Each structure stands twice: as C-alpha cells, then as structure tokens.
Amino acid sequence: MSIPTGGDLTIGEQPRTAQGVEQDRELLTGIAEEMRLARDHMVGFPVNLDFDHQDLAPFLAVHGNNVGSPNEPSEYHLHSKQFERCVVDFFADLAGAPAGVAFGYVTSGGTESNLFGLYLGRERHPDAVLYASTAAHYSIPKIARLLRVEHVPVDVDAEGAVDLSALGAEVASRPDRAALVVVTVGTTGGGAVDDLPGVGRTLAEAGVRRRHVHVDGAFGGLLAALAPRPRPWAFDAGADSVAISGHKMIGSPMPCGIVLARQHDVERIRVPGAAVGSDDDTIGGSRDVLAPILLWQELRRLGRQGLAERVRNCLRTADYATERLRACGARPSHLAGTNTVLFDAPHRTVCDRWNLLHVKGRAHLITMPHVTREHVDRLCAEIAGEAAAED
C-alpha cells in the first residue's frame, strides 16, 4: 500500500483552495480504498476486520465525550455512557463477576486496560513487586516504569506460559513484599495461557496474603471463555482485575478495550466531582464516545451464542491452517485452544504481502474472524510455489 508521506501531506499556512480540498478528498478516498483492499491479506495480526459500522456515520458529526465515571452523568450531555454500561455488564457476566460487584469502562485499548488494573493494584499495595512472565505483553515493563514499581520478569515453560515454580521462587525471595501479578491469557508470541488458579495456589503456598492479580486477557480472554473447552481466566478463578480487547475478537475501526475490577477496590482511586460534575475513576478522564456504541452494536448483533460460534470458527480455521501448512512443509506448531499458528517463515515478500509477523525464522498466522480457509489455501499455495521455484 503506497501512502503518501513527506511534502505530499504538508499542512500549509494558507487555507486550501476549493480545488485543493477536492484533491485532498480524493487522496483520502484512495487511501481508504487501499486499506479496505489490504484486508484480504491481513492474516498475521490479532485484529478482527469482519465488521461494518457505516450506519454510525452520523455520530461523526458531533463531539461526544464519556467524561468521568461511566456510572454517573456529567454536565457534558453528549455521551454514550448508557451503551458503555451495557458493554461492561456483558463482559462482567462473561468474566464471572457476581452481580453488582464489578466496575468497568471502555478504554483506548489493552495498554490502558493493563495500566488501570496495575495502577489499582499499586494503590492497594504501594510496596508491591510486579511479577509477569517474560512472554507478557510489551506494555507491562512500560507500565512498571510509569508506576515506579519493581518489575521481575519470570521464566516461561515449554508452551510459553508462566513457570509456576519460577514464580514461586521469585515471590518467596521477597517474603515481606506484596505481589502484583500479571496473568497473561493469550500471549502475543503463541497464544499461551498462564494458569490463573495455579498462580493463586503458588502465592498461597509462598504465604503471600497481600496480592493483586491482574489478568491480561486482551488477546485470549474471549477464547478462554467461549471455546468448546473453556479455561479459567477471570474473577471466578481468582482475578482482581481483567483486561479485554474490543478490536480483536469483536472488531472495531479503532483500538479499544474493556477493563474490569471490583467496585470496592476502585473506591480508593475515585476522585469525587473531578470531571465536569462527575466522579473520575478512569485513566483517561475524557473518553471516546463512539467505541462503546460500536461494541454494543456488534454484541447486540451477535449475542453471546454468536460470539461463541465466532470463537469456534476461529479455532476450526486454526486447526485447518495447521494441517495445510504441515502439508506444504512449513512445520507448523499450534497450541490447542488458541488461534495462533507458528510456522517456518516464507520469503520476505510473502511475509510482507500477507502481513505476517516473523521472529527468529518463525511466522505467525492468526485466524481472526475475517480469516477464512480460502485465505489459508492461497497463502499455502504461495508458500508451495516458492518452494517449487527454489527446487
């Protein structure tokens, strides 16, 4: 995709002429079309492109702002907090939170959700040490620096999940410190899922009573919850806060996420009346008004059963991709219950065309809802053609 850069996009001193405005409109229309066509080869990133919210265009003509607490009105009346609360309630139920216990809001994405959960844990336990696996999301070390908490990376096991014996040893070496633990449900490297109940047992065995367990389920939370064989991943398995992505399994034209925590924990960070007549218990304060509407619309369309069927389709496509990649000699590996398939990286041109991330000679195929068997077949045909050309 050739997006103009440099002087082509320079903002000048004078207003654009009518001709210039029309040229800019044509430029933007062309780029949007190129991005739309590029969806046909987007198979290497954990983002869902199977959505269409063009009917919501009228919301682009107003300035909406979900400022302050999602549970309170503010003096700014152009908001979508009623939709935000519906989205939060859906995910709180999915995450096993007892009725009326969970607080949540729609964030700008997984990093803000992780920041909120870990900020809450730091406020609960100011002396806490942050433990997270070496395969945790890249936002975790950054958040540790922002919050000025000690960060201890913990080794992973053969599947890429946190090694519980290594975690136990690290926690036991700091017996007087509280533990702020990140449990990753769906690593970006291979989709591995940390053992949340096992983390709880490990902390108990080490005698850690002061703890905050944050689940980063941005990638794999919905897979864990809705797969044919669900896995423990949220409040009913020991989590104190949970991060979920909105633009991955559900789909959205902009990054967004959901963070959940317990109401009584959030009270310690709430600032009464701080945000134009509303309490503020969020990171951003002013928040996107459109993302909650997008999520609400898609969840209403799918329902819980439709979302579960979407998850099952992704897993079936991952199984199919594993078989097809094995048949063309790409040596795939695939953890059961995940939609990530690792395989020998093809030529750079193939990786670029198909948007395949590749690390240490292995490429990532991620079967998100828009990725079909036809995509897999075309990719495998290119890989097989490349191998034949080398012979």
Automatic annotation (TrEMBL):
Pfam families per UniProt: Pyridoxal_deC
Ranges for region Disordered: 1-21
Keywords: Decarboxylase, Lyase, Pyridoxal phosphate
CC cofactor: pyridoxal 5'-phosphate
Record-linked PROSITE patterns: DDC_GAD_HDC_YDC
Family membership: Belongs to the group II decarboxylase family.
Database matches in PANTHER family: PTHR46101, SERINE DECARBOXYLASE (PTHR46101:SF2)
Protein name according to UniProt: Histidine decarboxylase
Organism, as annotated: Streptomyces xanthochromogenes
